[in-house]
Amino acid sequence: MKNVLTIAGSDSSGGAGIQADLKTFCAHGVFGMSVITAVTAQNTQGVLAVQDIDQDIIAKQIEAIFEDIAVDAVKIGMVSSRETVATIAAKLRQYRAVNIVIDPVMISKSGYHLLRTDAEQALLGELLPLAALITPNIPEAEVIAGVKIETPADMEMAARRIRELGARQVLVKGGHLPADEAATDVLYDGSRFRYFEGRRIATKNTHGTGCTLSSAIAANLGRGLPVEEAVQRAKEYITTAIEHSLAIGHGAGPTHHFYELYRKAGME
Question: What's the mean pLDDT in 42-65?
């Protein structure tokens, strides 16, 4: 069995963050491990509060994993402070971590800023060069690339600019395009673009979609799949998870991480 590590924040409602990552790892048949960077008080309606974890504890969590267990891939999610970014980057360089997927979590669906302004440049300068892949949505890609994105052509431009900052490959997710556009993601490897088309699903229950997609990609990379295939399979997985999302809570409910497993077990 392959071992995949998530470095991210905890979501008390279970739909995003560490909890979504570990569910996704399980659904992909890899052993999931976690380093918690922050504890959030949140539910389907929004984020109420965030408490960052002390840097020494973050470092010790990473050391505890890498000193004992082989790590086949790493997914990085919420890293809210400049100090957290620096600690993670130093440790991943120390242990020569591979197959690093960065989900640049900046703002929650409810509008809560999860990445401080001073941490943005640290993320781009210290973590991005370590990444095999970064997976920004359109609002995140606009901030990172400094461009307005309204069309697939704009997504290509943003992907080029983001790759120039150091990531080996860039996946710009198209879920925030106008509703009349397909939910198409654009992958850029420095020489060509690959489009991953997806259908739009009429549901408000999309809590944790970014976390889930990036974790699925990391799991697939950890299992030895090339990037394009890892992204394609992850795209199929998240589409199914959204299509069968769960109407839990009064806001945006979570995706269904285990739909296929439940279906095969006759539980659907």
Answer: 95
- In the chain, how many domains are there? 1
Q: Residue 118 above 90 pLDDT?
A: no
- Residue 179, pLDDT above cutoff 70: no
Longest dimension (CA), the chain: 49
Q: Is 211 a catalytic residue?
A: yes
Helices (H), 51-151: 55-66, 82-94, 117-122, 138-145
CATH number at residue 144: 3.40.1190.20
Catalytic residue among 211, 212, 235, 239: 211
- CA distances, 1 to each of 4, 7, 19, 75 (Å): 10, 20, 20, 17
Choosing from 206, 212, 239, 255, the catalytic residue is 206
Active site residue 203: no
* Model pTM above 0.85: yes
Token readout for 7 is: 């470095």
pLDDT digits (tens, 9 = 90+) for 244-260: 999 999 999 999 999 98
Active-site annotation holder among 173, 184, 222, 239:
173
Pick the catalytic residue: 208, 212, 235, 239?
A: 208
Q: Decide if 235 is catalytic.
A: no
Give catalytic status of residue 208 as yes or no.
Answer: yes
Containing domain of residue 253, as a range? 3-264
Active site residue 210: yes
CA distance 103 to 24: 14
206 catalytic? Reply is yes
The first and second tokens of residue 233, run together, are 């399979």
